[in-house]
Amino acid sequence: MKKPIIVANWKSFKNPQEAQKWLANLAILYRLKPFEFMNNIILCAPFLDLPTLKEEIGKLQPELDFVLGAQNIALEEKTPQTGETSPAMLIDLVSFVMIGHSERRTCFNETPEMVNKKIKICVDNGLKIIVCVSNLEDTQKVADEFPDYNELILYEPLSAIGSGQIDNPAKANDMAREIKKIFKNSQVLYGGSVKGENIKLFLQEPEIDGVAIGGASLEPDSFLEILKNASTN
Ligand code: PGA
Q1: Is 197 a catalytic residue?
Q2: 57-100: per-residue pLDDT in tens?
Q3: Is the pTM of this model over 0.90?
Q4: Which atom of ligand 1 is nearest to the CA of 160?
Q5: Ligand 1 pocket, 191 CB below 6 A?
Q6: Ligand 1 neighbour 193 (Cβ under 6 A)
Q7: In this structure, are residues 29 and 220 in contact, taking their beta carbons and an 8 Å threshold?
């Protein structure tokens, strides 16, 4: 059975109190109807929530095991950049950093050059990476600078993000196969309107190694349904 990687992307939706409540409610719901909980769940939360989540997740382990991820990182390591979050600030809090999400590329004009700078900062600091791409061009731009990149790639077609319209799973599988031709040792995840009711469609595809979930990760019950369906895939 495939052991899928599940990424929750909370975007900018929860403050620390809400984050704490989410975990507490998830634990209550899980204990009412336990199932085999996976240990490859990456919770990508807003920076502000990370210290609280780290502490609360520590209390729930090993029963409920989450790994934390940031949703962004500063562009430069050592220059002053008001308002940014440097690797030194993240290193004790997260294992993963998500880089180049399409919302950042669109809303904050993140260019492929900026994405590559952030990849380098993570590599230099031993932070694991989830690079988000929407097409093969984005992927190739990463490969131009990091031909041996072997970490996670999150493929998210723009039309599927937050729209309720999933990509065709066979098409997503084709894209994952193409991405793996560029990065032979990467694992490729699909993201875009994944929910409990459609997750298996993607996990059944041979080239898709996991999924990312935005909207449906925000409520503990919908997220638990996703985890449950993934664990019985
Ligand atoms: P969605 O978001 O699940 O709400 O479509 C996915 C993402 O942006 O990672």
Answers
A1: no
A2: 999 999 999 999 999 999 998 888 999 999 999 999 999 999 99
A3: yes
A4: 5
A5: yes
A6: yes
A7: yes
Q: What is the largest CA-CA distance in the chain?
A: 49
How many angstroms separate the alpha carbon of residue 75 from the centre of ligand 1? 23
DSSP H or E segment with residue 141: helix 136-145
Q: How far apart are CA 218 and CA 195, in angstroms?
A: 11
Q: Is 189 exposed, middle or buried (0-12, 13-18, 19+ CB in 10 A)?
A: buried
Which of 103, 110, 151, 156 does the annotation list as catalytic? 156
Under 8 Å between Cβ of 199 and 224: no
Span 144-183, pLDDT tens digits: 999 999 999 999 999 999 999 999 999 999 999 999 999 9
Q: Is the CB of 220 under 6 A from ligand 1?
A: no
The H helix count followed by the E strand count for the chain is: 9, 8
For ligand 1, atom 3: residue with the closest CA: 214
Provide the CA 204 distance to its chain's centre, in angstroms.
19
Asked if 156 is an active-site residue, the reply is yes
Residue 88, H or E segment: helix 87-90
Burial bucket for residue 125 (CB in 10 Å: 0-12, 13-18, 19+): middle
* Residue 154 Cβ < 6 Å to ligand 1: no
